[in-house]
Write a structure and sequence with these properties.
It is built from three helices and seven strands; from the N terminus they run H-E-E-E-E-E-E-E-H-H. By secondary structure, the chain is an alpha+beta fold. It has a single domain, classed as Alpha-Beta Complex (Peptide Deformylase), CATH 3.90.45. The strands form two sheets. A five-stranded antiparallel beta sheet has the order 1-2-3-6-7, with helices on both faces. The longest helix is centred in the first third of the chain and has 16 residues. The protein is globular, with a radius of gyration of 16 Å. The mean pLDDT is 97. The structure holds zinc ion. The site of zinc ion has 5 residues, from helix 2.
Length: 182
């Protein structure tokens, strides 16, 4: 297993639509293990493949470290699709390992249904709500090249600009490995 450097706002791969996984081989299984290790090392609860510089539709989520959510098992989702979102939405403060030190209120559907391939190449459908749903939607956003600033009110987005510049220039304190400035 390995802790991989995490891509940071400004890295081009974070703005690309990730490619679907065609075959779940040993390389993919090993990547998923590395992603879990990288996420936990950074105290994250979700991580997408393009956050470790890999152009593939995979993300990992582990909300079991959050009080009250211990029953939700860590999961790796391959080629995920959001197949249902509730009309009800919730606003909640979000962070991102690729946007260190930044947090912002993001409105997202409260309940979702996601369809994905698991590591055994089985099609799985999972219903998720609250924080679990939020993390899945956040990670799914990464796979379509979207990040927190794209999901906030335009007024708030303006306010985030100087912080985003500092992050892009690596002028923030980060206690986990990140990529070199491109
Ligand atoms: Zn993120």
């Amino acid at each position: 297993m390995a802790i991989l450097p995490i891509t940071v706002y400004g890295d081009a791969i974070l703005r690309q639509k990730a490619k679907p996984v065609e075959k779940i081989d040993d390389e993919i299984i090993s990547l998923i293990r590395d992603m879990f290790e990288t996420m936990r090392n950074a105290n994250g609860i979700g991580l997408a493949a393009n956050q470790v510089n890999v152009d593939k539709q995979i993300f990992v989520v582990d909300v079991s470290v959050v009080e009250g959510l211990e029953h939700i098992k860590p999961v790796a989702m391959i080629n995920p699709e959001i197949i249902l979102t509730s009309d009800e939405s919730v606003i909640y403060e979000e962070g991102c390992l690729s946007l260190p030190t930044l947090t912002a209120d993001v409105e997202r559907p409260e309940i979702i249904k996601v369809r994905y391939l698991n590591a055994d190449e089985e099609i799985v459908e999972t219903e998720a709500d609250d924080l679990f749903a939020r993390v899945i939607l956040h990670e799914y956003d990464h796979l379509i090249g979207k990040m927190i600033p794209d999901r906030v009110e335009p007024k708030l987005k303006k306010k985030l600009q100087s912080k985003l510049r500092d992050i892009q220039r690596r002028k923030v304190d980060i206690n986990y490995p990140i990529t070199e400035k491109q």
